[in-house]
Amino acid sequence: MIPLYHDFAGETVLVFGGGAVGSRKASRFADEARVVVASPAFDDRLADLGEGDAAEGDVGSVELVRAAPAPDAVSDWVDRLDPALVVAATDDAAVNAAAEAAALDAGALVNRTDVSAADRSGGRGARSVVVPATVEDDPVRVALSTGGASPALAKALRERIEAEIDGAGAMAELSGTLRAELKDRGIAPERRREAIRRVVRSEGVWKALQKGDSYGRKEADSVIEEVLTR
User: Fold this and answer.
1) Alpha helix (H) ranges present in 132-188?
2) What is the per-residue pLDDT for 59?
3) Most buried among 49, 58, 146, 159, using CB within 10 Å?
C-alpha cells in the first residue's frame, strides 16, 4: 500500500456505526468534511461532536442520525448522501460488507474497520483505504499505519513521533520562507538547496526557534550566509 493525502474539504464522510471506533473515525474527519454518522446508539464521545450543525457546514460538527440500516438499505444511504468516503464501523459484518460494496459501486473510497490488510488474501482495492494515525505540528503532518494489524503499535509509535517533531511546524514555515527569498535573489538551485539543507539540519536553528521565530530567523540567516560566502 502507498500512503496518500486526500483533501476532504467540501466533501461528505458517511460513517456507519456510532461506537468507539465510529466515534474515533468521525472525529478524525470532522475538522475538514461534513460527517454523517448513522447508528442506533452513539458513543458518549460523539455527543460534543454532534452539538454543531453539520447541515449548515459548521466546522468540527457531526450530524448524528439515529438509525440502523439493514444491509439491503445501506446502498440507499450512499446514493442519497453521495459521500467521498464511507466508513464501515458497525459490529455487524453483513452491514459492513454492504457498506463496502455500496461505496465501491458508487465510486467512493471505503474504510472497513473490521477487516485488516492481513485478513485480505487478495489485497485491498484501490478505493479501499486505511485511515492512518497522524502526528501534526502544522503544516507538518506525519502519518503512520500498521495496515490494521496492530492499532496499539500505531498508537505507541505516534506518541514517540510526537516528541520527535516538536517544532517542525515552525521550521517548515521558516525554511519555506527562506527558500522563496533565495529564489527571488537569483541564488542558483544547487546553492539554494544546500543552504536550506544546512538550515533544517542545524541544531542551532532548531534551538533558536524554541525561543521564538525572530531568534530562529537570525540563526538561519547566519547559516545561510556561511554557505553562500564560502
Assistant:
1) 151-164, 168-184
2) 43
3) 49
